[in-house]
Amino acid sequence: MKSLSLKWLAAGWLAVVMTSLTVANAAVRTPAVFGSGMVLQRDMPVPVWGWGEPGEEVTVTFRDQSQSTKTDADGKWIVKLAPLSVGEPADLTVKGQNTLTFKDVLVGEVWICSGQSNMQWSVNSSLDPDLEKAAANHPQIRLFAVPLTTADTPQEDVIASWQPCNPQTLGNFTAVGYYFGRQLYETLHVPVGIIQTAWGGTRAEAWTSPEMMAKSANLAPIQESWNERLAAPANAAATAEYEPKWKKWQEDWKAARIKGEPAPGRPGHPQNTRWSEHHPSTLYNAMVAPLAPYAIRGAIWYQGESNAGRAYQYRELMPAMIQSWRDAWGQGDFPFYQVQLANFFESKDQPAESAWAELREAQHMAAKALPNVDAACIIDAGAAKDIHPKDKQVVGKRLARLALVDVYQVPGIIRQGPTFESVQFDGNKAIVKFDTHGSKLISYYGEPLKGFALAGEDKNFVWGEAKITGPDTVEIVAAGIEKPASVRYNWADNPKGTLYSEAYLPAYPFRSDSWDGVTVKNVRAE
């Protein structure tokens, strides 16, 4: 993935240089997320911000409105444009002692796409890249990719630029983000801006703000384990050696940014230091904080593989991360849609406990912990021997279903597959009722109904015999289980359940019990 980040880094800095060179040593400047070709979010106030000389008057003009302010004692300024409507491309100008002009600015829908490798996974590495790129002439879809970088404190800017979507620019961009954004564009017929900020193999705590990580006693063991690691002599020595290099790079980078000069190369950070991409908040600091409060409609998130060993802790970590982003943006409870983990690892012959099933449950529980949060089910889109399933088209579509129904209220779209609603135990039977979201239950292409398991109070699960008994109900019995106490469906690393809706959307994994799972005691970041 290094070539991906370097390509976008180079392109991003070139755009920053060209903008900054409008006036040599320009006093007024903006973060890189403002640039020619950007998409501004429609139908809500649009913050525009930046820096200048203390006390300098700054005026931002777009279409027929202008907003003015003065920089504060630190040289910072911010204005808010009144809500905008979709229309023809226009210039946005920022005028102080100098004038910055951003051309070809569109108004439409803006979404952030974040997470670990399955969000970072490119169109080039997914299904049918040749066909997808050949058809990718979408001048009203704009792409912005944040390069991979870390920081031990919140940063103010990134090195990136907006790019039009075409066969030349799309290949290294997030596949899930693109297919999600393309579905929105094709359905809504408005410009779409997609902001990629994702890093493979990373954990949710690295994407959570320092303030939020410090609030929760249940998350404290993550930082405590890191503190122990940082105190090891070799790691302490690496920190002492790297810190002056980091400080000098920050100073040189800010100076170059002001002058419109090429960015100095950043020294590579050593692992097991507070700059590691796995350390709490380093990715929030470097790859999220600089984007806020750029007006957005919402965010999509594909992550969890690296936190599966601490799935119970994720029940609190994920809502904390989401809330930290909402706090940073200050625009309320914007929509946040996760991707539930796909099926992975070898399938097992008998029911068993599963850390990945527990992580999927934690993702589903986040939807109940916070408003406007949900998860798309892709339990049928994975691969036993590849943690990076190539069919990202289906992932983008299932995320788009949530947004098109919830946010845009497009009629006639089935929101998602069946979700567990309740269970009634009647003798040796479990009768499960589902919320079918407008599309009745079926078995996948008429195959036998698989994936259900029952257990008594002894917690020993046995595969069940299941049948659909109504448009929203399934009845299950299991050999040797005379008095079931729990029912589970697709509760496994790589389940093979066949319950779908008529829209051929898979039923979400679930369990009716709350018995302790295999990750209940895991709280340290090992």
Structural overview:
The protein has 526 residues and is an alpha/beta fold. 27% of the residues lie in helices and 24% in strands. The chain has eleven helices and 23 strands. Strands 1, 3, 4, 6, 7, 8, 9, 10, 11, 12 and 13 form an eleven-stranded mixed β-sheet that branches. A four-stranded antiparallel β-sheet has the order 14-15-20-19, with no helix packed on it. It has a four-stranded antiparallel β-sheet with strand order 18-17-21-23, with no helix packed on it. Helix 4 (175-188) crosses helix 11 (392-406) and helix 9 (311-329) runs parallel beside helix 10. The longest helix has 27 residues, at 233-259. It is globular, with a radius of gyration of 25 Å. The two termini are 24 Å apart. Residues 1-26 have low confidence and may be disordered.
Topology:
Layout: H1 2-20, E1 39-41, E2 46-51, E3 57-62, E4 65-70, E5 76-81, E6 90-95, E7 99-115, H2 117-120, H3 129-134, E8 138-145, E9 162-165, H4 175-188, E10 192-198, H5 210-215, H6 220-231, H7 233-259, H8 282-288, E11 298-302, H9 311-329, E12 336-339, H10 355-369, E13 373-376, H11 392-406, E14 419-426, E15 429-435, E16 441-443, E17 452-455, E18 462-463, E19 465-470, E20 473-477, E21 486-489, E22 499-501, E23 510-511
Parallel strand pairs: 1-7, 7-10, 7-11, 8-10, 11-12, 12-13
Antiparallel strand pairs: 2-5, 3-4, 3-6, 6-7, 8-9, 14-15, 15-20, 16-22, 17-18, 17-21, 19-20, 21-23
Helix pairs in contact: 4-11, 9-10
